[in-house]
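Reposting from the mailing list since nobody answered there.

I have sequence plus structure tokens for a pair of proteins and want to know whether others read the tokens the same way I do. The first protein:
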Amino acid sequence: MKLRNEGYDVDVAATAEAALAAAAARPPDALILDVLLPDGRGTDLCRELRQWSAAPILVLSAVGDDAEKIAALDAGADDYVTKPFNVDELTARLRAALRRSAPTQARVLEAGDLRIDFEKRLVTVRGQAVSLTPTEYDLLRLLAQNDGKLLTHPTILREVWGPRYREESNYLHVYVSHLRRKIEADPARPRYLLTVPGVGYRFVAS
């Protein structure tokens, strides 16, 4: 198996019940879940795991099943890979998820010309301070502190605007557009704030 060849210690569970038992007995560093399981759905398993585990979770989903992907991400998954998938892509996404989950005390994020000082709530581009509204800053901070992780529209709306705005994606689109004009060299071809059509946004530092 590719993961074992890469040096990972792999435990395999055929059902959701077996996966929960195995994870409880030997807490994993990361999990890869299929959406369709013999005794349930990977989305429900993900939600249950998130009640006590912070380990990165990657979900395998069928091509074109956007609703299932979004449900899994909202249930706590960190990323997804569509079937059929390239095994090298899966291992790369796993490595990225493990890096993101590693403890960090970073108070400053530097990405190209962009610098975010989380402690001072200060954003600069090419050394020049960028004037952001409180909401713009909160949105940028949320995305940047989840560097590389895909955040769905409902997740972002809930974290930045609150639960009442869960369906108000128009707010999100407007603010992302504002942010891009302020921090991107070319807002039409963003480097940092990337769109995943129909799903959400991903901040990419490198």
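The second protein, same order (residues first, tokens after):
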Amino acid sequence: MQLTDEQKQKVAQWIADGLKLSDIQNRLAEEFQVRLTYMDTRLLVDDLKLMPKDPPAPPQPKPEEAAAAGAPEAAEPSPLSPDAVTPPAGGVSLSVDTLARPGTIVSGSVTFTDGKKAAWYLDQTGRLGVVPEVQGYRPPAGDVEEFQALLDRELAKMGY
């Protein structure tokens, strides 16, 4: 499909206005009765040597604002492992493997308040798995919540 020079200028203006490709695709259909697939729209913009604008990044809060909002503090790493998160004595401790287990995105180990240990992992579909050393072991209820909070903080630090 060939566009007239006027239509090409209009597409260039839409790009300059910051419209996304899907919006341009819709406008071409509405204003010019030109129906293109998303890929055809993308190729059209490329042929016109135009570059869509990236959406503006959301503003980041200043460190003072984040602290005032109650942002969680980073846990101190354990001297035993560079990736370990250890709360005060008797609490749940968590460590992240340097090299993830095969078939997982990230993995590690956890020690619960009763001293029992388990391996944990996050697979490619985002499912969390916990494999205790002793089959059938169930950690205390409060430990599960603490483990989840520690894991959430560690994964956030890693960008997950």
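Reply #1 (J.P.):
I read it the same way you do. The first strand starts at residue 84 and ends at 85.
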